[in-house]
Amino acid sequence: MNVIPAMLSLHLALPLIIAISIIFCSLTLLTNERKMYNAIEVALFGIAAIISFIMLWQSYSGIFLHILQANAFSELLFGSLAFGAMLVLLLTVNAKQQKEMRLLMSLVLFGIFMVSFAYSVLAIIIGLETVIIATVFMILSNGKRYIEPAMKLFILGAISTGLFVAALALLLPYNPSLSITTSLTQGAGRFIIGLSLVLFAAALAVETGAFPFNLWIPDVYDGSPGNITALMAGINKKVAFVAVLEIFIIMFSSYGMYGNGNLVSTVFFVLSIFTMFFGNLIALIQKNVKKMFAYSSISQAGYIFIGISAATKLGIEGSIFYIIAHMLMIIGAFSIVFWLESNNIKNIDEYGGLKDRNPFAAVALTILMLSMAGIPPLIGFAGKFILFSSAVYSNDILLAVIGIINSFISIYYYAKVINQMFQKRMSPRIQMPANIAAVVAICTILVIIIGIYPQILLGPSYLAAAYVI
Amino acid sequence: MIPLILLIIIPSAFFAAIAVFRRYGRILSTVSALAGLALILFIFGSSLISGSAAVISQSYSYIPSLGIQFTLSVSNISLVLLLMASIILLATSLSGNMGLEKETLSSLLIVLFQIGAYGLFISGNFFIFFIFWDIGVIAPFFMINVLGSANRRIASYKFILYELFSSALLLTAIILVYFYSPGHTLNIYSLAGLYSSMPIYIQETIFSLFFIAFMINMPLFPLHTWLPDAHSEASTQGSMMLSGILTKFGGFGMLLIFITMPIARSFSLYIAALATISAFYAAFLMMRQRDIKRIVAHTTIIEMSIIMFSIATMTAIGYEGALYGMLSHGLVVALMFLAAGGIEHMFHERNIGVLKGLSKYSKTTSYVFLIGIFVMSGLPLTTGFVSDLLIFIGGINAFGIYGIVPLFSLILLAGFMYLVINRSFFANKQPTKPSEHLPQAAKAGYAILLLSIFIFGILPFIVLNLVNSSIL
Amino acid sequence: MDILYLILPLLIGGAASLLLGINENGKRYSKYAAFAGALGSSILTLIALAYPAMLQYGQIAWFTASGSISFPLSFSFGYINQVLLILVGIISPLIFLYSIGYMDEPGEQGRYYVELSLFAASMILLAVSGGFITFFIAWEGLGITSYLLIGFWMQKDAPPYAARKAITTIVIGDIMMLSGILLIWASLNTFNFAAIISAIGAMAAVPISIIVALALIIFGAFTKSAQFPFHEWLSDAMEGPTPVSAFLHSSTMVKAGVFVVIILLPIITHANLLWVLLVFGIITSIVGAFNASGSTHLKKILAYSTIEDLGLMFVALGLNAVSAAVAFFIVQAIYKALLFMNAGSIMKANNDEVDIYQVSSFSRNRLLFAVGIIGAISLAGIFPASGFFGKLLIDSAASSNATVYIILTVLDFVTGFYIFRWLFIPIGHIGKNGSAAIRAKYSALSKAMLVPQVILAAIALLLTILFLYALTSVSIQAAVILTAASLFGILSAYLLFRTSPNNLWERSRSREFLSKGFFVNKAYAYIASGIAAIAIGIESIDGAINRLVYVGAEGILRIGNSMRRTGNGIVNTYVAALAIGLVLLIAILVFVI
Fold first, then answer.
1. At residue B453, what are phi and psi to the nearest 5 degrees?
2. pLDDT tens-place string over residues C449-464
3. Does residue B50 belong to the interface with chain C, where contact is any CB pair within 8 Å?
4. For testing the chain A interface, which of B160, B184, B208 should be mutated: the one with the most A CBs within 10 Å?
5. What ipTM does this complex have?
């Protein structure tokens, strides 16, 4: 298989594909709407993902321009997130504002690329910013109704960026190259570096949705159209997690232990506990499915923090695994929510009898929710097992126990929806459009397959984790 | 030795087949149960002939980064439970989904549960154990939630919350075992000698977590409240599987931890006391029930408490008694739920205050129910007698004269059951008229279960000779 | 011949009659199949008794548990086994024959005969059991068949209730018996009677666990042998068909308890538990005799009389007079079966009327009357009926104990009184349906019902010869006292019921009191409601546990509810929370560094 790299030098292939995608989408803005363009765009996303996976397979690594670097970590996460972005794009192919969506999605792809392949902190901020701005415009493109969530997202994104830049400014004297591989040690200015760490944490906590920085999330998720919610929960948040891993695990890795413990671990320990409980407890009483999933995705972020808090290879492996796992689960779930929303079905009560109205959707949503609740043999269980194990491994039994308690609490609200869906109601059947069905099917099948044989994803996650820590 | 993974692959294949050929759901699930039974009989027969006492394990690579393998093991305990499970599954699939249209779904869930039950009983490490444990919980959840009767929603909710709480504890315990065992092993059988190298407080924590998890599943007082609702609201097939097989998950786990964990000895006396209380408590509670399925559900608590008591004796004969008790109880409770389901189907009524003189129009079912009571009260030449003998010999060996106390809860059980049957079944003055006939298929279910009860009751050495060599 | 072959014909006959009973055409032959089975078993039994050398018995390995603990089926053929076998062998075919006449509705015959055959098979198994496992199998078989047969007439009001009472008592007894068996096993590691007796006999002091075990076995035996306070089920058991009463509830099944106590008597003596037998035997026989005097139910009088007889057997055992007990064991079975068959014939002729004041006399059928009198004098203990010797032996055994002797003599009087009350009251009574119809019915009584009675009456008399031949010395004084007491009883009955026009006894307060059965049933009811009260209490505890879980869940939901306000849609809140979070993080920083 040396043919492919020979044909197309891989490190150029990805930027090329993204550039083509952006140019192509810009051009299609000028022409009439054609279904084929959507197909081409989806294909481009798919090719990007595939190239990334091939790079992973070929163990390709390298550094470019002191801004980007390629390694197993970046390749795995870019490939997976690009794949997720492709799924989200697939959701929107029939939307009326598809032209704008295409362009904005290709910008999102660019953002994912920048963050995943970041070598410099600058690449991370550029990537994050691109993703947020693109998302804001995506929401806005749906009409006047959506100005409010777009503005909220924009404001919070701006604050996040501000905090990020402030952290960067504090860091500059100690890390003039802004490279994430520079190890920051506890020499002079350790308090300044610590402050910078905290500001980074706050900035990324806003975007990853850690409590108490996450109050905007349910509001914006609920206010936005379902497909963009899927994007925000499935891609934006995960991109922020990639940034978290890069900054805290790579850059601050040797910022070492202090009197009462590792600062990174402590910060994420606290954030993890708060976030899990916050998301789950409020999700318990939600009547609106979309909001419920919004809160649920908050609590799921808390699980990812467990692995980061453990800051061991196993923990990072688990976090990477769970980032991808949750992306699949939440995109699948929000796709169904998105579709039902367009049929004016929003509340849990209205989900009653979904099994008879569209068995496929009911079964898929059930599987996805069971996976989120951590029921084996689904992907969520494999991820949680590794995360909780990593917590125990680094002697944080408390964190593991809280994680397990939270997965138990989450059963309550997932079961509520399942309970409703399988009730008998005399309602007409509703048809699911083929593109949404495809997204749901892909997510569900992957959730089951990787769940039954987690090694498919665990192997690459392990490789990726080896680069990070 | 045939690959044990066949026991999982075959039902999985049938699961897929039912999903495709929806019209043949019941036939396919029956064939699946038959195939499973044939395989298990083959393994059973070959172990009986070879008389090998060793646990047979087969491993496949699963999660190398954690050092977790997909290990399947067959011990003597699991063989007996597998045999029981396949007989019940066969009877369950064969007797069909009386009066309900959703037969495909029902068959699918039975086969899914078959995967869970087989997988659990042949799991060689706790990771696999946990996976199949939860599969075994999800299938009955839908059996209650979708196919159940009037109060199914609350019942299924309670069921899933309790069961998954139990599995949360189980998960915690498993993770602890993983990190404290030398060499990070989760292998159920090879852990036997390794627990003692862990710190005492960790052993105690692990044991308590396992114990409470299994205790919820079995169930024991005071964590039993989910059971009467769940078992009585499930569809007939669901009740048969729940009471017959699912409660044995906990029993199986209890046997494993008591046999392998030396720390159990410091708890066994308290656990035996708890089990005794639980048996009497449930017996008294049963007397307040008027719903025939709830009554049968309460007998499950009583019998499982006695089985727990037997395990807590920590004697070889006590373990055998518990195993035989599970075999006996699984078969008989499935029989009784099938009979109760038949009554519900025929008379559209479950309240024993309303039902009168059932034996007039449903002789078979009435006598089947009666035989069920006989077995539960320990009639010789049925499995009930053998298990009572073994259990209480174990009890006396371990606790002296107090070891006989739980036996007296059977007076309450039998006394009340006879009251029920004589009021509602065998008092024919003003018999209730049935609105439907009992399907012939249900009679086939009766026949299979009765036959097994008598075979294992009259020829107990079939099972005991296997177990005699080694309980594991 | 293996000893188990003795029950084979019965099992085959029972199965055949069940199968025939299901078949429309075969229904009529059901009874004959069962009778043939019983007769076959009986013949085999008699052959076995005649040529004991032919028999093979001993231990059959049944199963082994835990590697070494074996559960064998043991059989034995000692004298007590033979006695019980003879009784069953004689009575069982007679009962089947009687049933052919008595059970004349064909619809339910299959069920009846299979239950009866199973019962007879269990009885034979019990008789030949040589160890507790075999014994307990038979014991449970007796209990269950008895339960089924008592409740045989499901379409009536009372039988299901009576069956429930019987089975409840029987279950209590079964559990006590099983507990005792297991406790004995735990001490001695054997189930074999002979081994147990020799092992305990060799002990200097009997350990407490064996005493408890023996007590449990004795009380288990009391439940089946209807001893106070477990005796009330037997009077209710009269709701079953009469052949059942004649077979199970007077002559055979109720002897199971006596049988096991006789077997274990050496160790009961060794464990100093004879007083239990004596005390409960005396109480039971008093209760039984007086209840019999109070009742007006044709069969219940006999049932209470059976209770009294069983009590007397336990008295004899309590006095360690095994031979007296065994002698009474035999004669009682014969005359009680006879009397029940007699009562059944009366009922049959009177359309199942059971009140002795309503039935018309059986003096119209002279044969019936004659065998009835033989039964009655045998029960009363008048020479030349064999009952006389049974009572005489027990009385002689008690002669060393003045209190017991006096009580027994009073009971002799009461026995004579109530059985002749039973006999006299219906005499000359016209009955509701007019005499002509009744007379026709009496003369139409099936031969199958009369023949067994004649045979039994003959046996009751012939046994006398046997006793005269076998007994070497009898206490003349005791014989005189017994005869006097009984005759006095009969005389009182004659005076009260044959000569006096206004019936003093029947309207007296004491009879009314006695007919209430010493409030034992009321005590049962109190116990039952006590258990029900506990059940209510437990139920409320259960409710509390449930509520506790709900309250916990509610609490968690409430926390969630109160936190929901954070997502109020106002950006200011979000930014404020963010600021707080930042402060929190800085606090962590300060704390950690």
1. -60, -45
2. 888 888 888 888 888 8
3. no
4. B160
5. 0.92
pLDDT along chain C (593 residues), means of 10: 80 83 80 87 87 81 82 87 88 88 79 88 89 91 90 86 90 92 88 88 86 91 89 86 86 88 90 89 90 86 90 90 88 89 84 78 72 87 84 86 88 88 74 64 80 88 85 80 87 79 70 77 89 92 89 87 80 85 85 74
- Judge whether residue A11 has pLDDT over 70: no
Q: Which of B458, B317, B310 is nearest to B383 (CA)?
A: B458
CA distance, residue B411 to nearest chain C CA (Å): 6
Q: Which residues of B touch C64 (CB under 8 A)?
A: 461, 464-465, 468
- Return d(Cα A456, Cα B392) in angstroms, integer: 51
Check CB contact of B151 with chain C, cutoff 8 Å. Answer: no
Within 8 A of B460 by CB-CB distance, chain C residues are 62-63
**Chain A residues inside the 8 Å CB shell of C559:** 281
Contact A411 B127 (CB under 8 A): no
pLDDT digits over A273-323, tens only? 999 998 889 988 888 899 899 999 999 999 999 988 888 888 899 999 999
Distance from CA of C98 to the nearest CA of B (A): 26
Q: Which chains touch A (3 or more CB pairs under 8 A)?
A: B, C
Distance between B344 CA and the closest CA of chain A, angstroms: 21
Rounded Cα distance between C535 and B289, Å, is 10
Interatomic CA distance for residues B358 and B351, integer angstroms? 12
| Spans of all domains in chain A | 256-469
Nearest CB to A392; choose among B62, B138, B176? B176
Higher pLDDT, B456 or C424: B456
pTM recorded for the entire structure: 0.91
- Are A411 and B175 a contacting pair at CB < 8 A? no
CA distance A173 to A193: 10
Residues in chain B: 472
- DSSP conformation class of C365: S
Q: Which of C136, C151, C183 sits opposite B401 (nearest CB)?
A: C183
When CB atoms are compared, the residue of A212, A218, A281 closest to C560 is: A281
| Interface contact flag, C564 A267, Cβ < 8 Å | no
Class of residue A12 by CB neighbours under 10 A (exposed 0-12, middle 13-18, buried 19+): exposed
| Min Cα separation B72/chain C (Å) | 26
Tell me the C-alpha distance between A74 and B431, whole Å: 76
B320/C66 Cβ within 8 A = yes
Q: C575 in contact with A at a CB cutoff of 8 Å?
A: yes
Give the B:C interface size as CB pairs under 8 Å.
Answer: 144
Provide the residue type at B40 as one letter: I
